[in-house]
Structures are given as C-alpha cells and as structure tokens.
Amino acid sequence: MARPTMMLELFPVEVRYLTEVAALAIWTSSTVLITPVVYLLQDISWRYLYLIFTLTSAYSVFGYWICDESVRWLLANGKTSEAKNILRKAAKINKVNKDEVLFIVEKVKAEYFTRTEDLDTTTMIPTGNDVKEINKNNLPKYNILTLFKKRRISTITVIMIIAWTVDSLTYYGLILSSASLPVDRYLSFFLLAVAEYPVAIFEYTLMNRIGRKRFCILFHAVAAVSLLAGTAANYLSDFPGANIAIMAFFFLGKLGITGSFSCLFLYTPEMYPTNLRTIGIGLASAAGRVGGMLAPFAGPLSTHVRWAPGAIFGCLCVILTLVLPFLPETRGHELPTLVEELEEWYKTHSGTNRRQQSV
Fold first, then answer.
1. pLDDT 10s digits, 272-308
2. Distance in angstroms (rounded) separating the CA atoms of residues 228 and 299
3. Which helix (H) or strand (E) holds 162?
C-alpha cells in the first residue's frame, strides 16, 4: 500500500487525483490482457501461467534504486538533508533554480514548526530565517493504536475498514462468479474487465468536480442498484430477454464497484496524517484482503443459489452509501500532518456537521 501514499505525496493537491486515474487505466489494461493469455494457455499447466505473471512484475525489484523517498515524509520526520538532496536532483532535471526551491522548503519548515512549537515532541527551534535542528524526530510517535484513540479518526478508520472489506468482496466476487453468466466464461471475464475503462474516464472528468466523497457514494449507489436489479433478473431468468438484462446489470454493477473501489485508493490516504498515512491505508487494505478471501465462495454459492451473490453484494453496497456521508471531503484540501490537524479539519468538513464548508 506504499504506492498510493507515495503518489499522493509526490504530486500537488490540484492534480493528485490523476495518479489514481492512471493507475486504474493501467490496472484495467492488464486485466484485459489476462484474457487472451489465459485462453491460449488453457490446455497447459497453471504453473506456466504463474511464471508469466511473475516475470511481468519482476521489474518492480529495481524500484528500490529508481524511486526516491517521499519528500513530505522526510521533512515531517526531520530528515532535512535527505529531502534537500532529492529536491536538488529534481530541480536539476526540471531546470529550476534549486536555491528558490530550497528557500521555499525552509519557509514551509519554519511555518510548520511555529504551529507545532507547543507540542512536547517538537524538536526544532526557529531562529530568524534559520531552523536549528535539535532532534530528528519532530512529530509525535504514531502507531496503529492511534487510529482508534480519538473519535473522529476512529470513525474514519472504522468506515474505511468496512468500505475496503465490502468493495474487495464485491469486486473479486463479481470476477469469480462471472463464470455463472449465460455466456462463455472467457468472454464474460473479458467484458467485465472492459467495463472498467469507462470508470477511468469518469474519474478524470468527475472526481475533481464533485469530490471524492460524492464520487464514492455515487458509484456505490450504481453498484447497489445494478446488482439488486440483476438479482431480480436472475430470479426471473425464465422470462424472455432475462439473460440480456442479467449481463447488462452485471456489467453496470462491475462498473460501479470498480469506480468506488478505485476511489478508495485515493480517498483513504488523503484523510490520514503523514506518519499515519501508510498505517491507515495498510489496515484498511488488510481488511480488504479478508473480503478477498471470502470472494471465492461467491462462485460455489451462485451454483446453488444463482441470485444470492448479487443480492449480498447489492445490500452491502446500500449500507456503504448510508455510512460514507459521515466522512469529510478531501478534494482541494492539503494532506494533513498531525492527528490534531485532522480532527480540527473533520469538525467543519464532516457531512454530519451543519457548519460544513465548501471545498
């Protein structure tokens, strides 16, 4: 789960949503390409298929030497010299005056430490234009228990755990139960993969206009309505045209859950402070793996009760559309650094607060 966090901290607030748009487009293309590969290797041992998939991701080993550490994280944890080295390299590549960049860094650091000087853990002392370094650990020590110590951050964590579990269960459950659709299993998988391409377009055009929260609620609602409608069509499968309706609703349900799940990869880390960002999305993702482990049972269940998986997935998506409004909107808001900062921001940006401010 380091990828979403790294990408968020690398790009400015105005364009950070594009990181998820690009990630979804690449993920979808990879899923689409799986179909012909699997079809061609269907008569060969599965070990060769695993070997191919392993080799296509082998390049990631070199990421350790190619990717730099997050500058935001380095500055937040007092590793100023390492952050400056990265910024000097970036300034050289982009042909920008490095002195101007470093001046901005010092200014931001001075402003930040002015705001947090009352904390017992503050370890930097601003003196004029210079910042004297006393200790490298200038932020409070956070751990996984911090996610549950205060009401607002614990609300975010609980809702995100539920959302990731439901979305992972529904997303992979739909994929694994695609063989039960009234068409060839390879074709059904291919069509469900193609259904994700429009979501990338919707993310590009809507996510920065209506916000992350509304986008997530909208696509959960689309998934809920489509899957419940597909359940009804499944129940009436003896009627003429029912199979076409089942495919259409299944297609829309996959589109909806892809949009909501993809949004979570952006929305979740945006809500956590710097030193809790990876922990927060990591815990939510771990909960999502539980949903992923339950997803394979959707296929066997559909063979016994054809309409059951869609009904379960649809009802869970309805529940999520009712709890997501309790979260704050993150569009246009700078990433928080401290838990206290997050709590204060939540007070005026929660959907349950009458004083909610437009972002």
1. 988 888 899 999 999 999 999 998 888 788 778 777 8
2. 17
3. helix 151-176
DSSP three-state, residue 352: coil
Above 50 in pLDDT, residue 341? yes
Parts of the chain belonging to CATH 1.20.1250.20: 143-349
CB neighbour class for 150 (10 Å; exposed up to 12, middle 13-18, buried from 19): middle
pTM of the model: 0.82
Q: Which is more confidently placed, 316 or 6? A: 316
Top-confidence residue, 62 or 261: 261
Q: Give CATH superfamily name and number for 143-349.
A: MFS general substrate transporter like domains (1.20.1250.20)
Least Cα distance to 181 among 302, 317, 311 occurs for 302
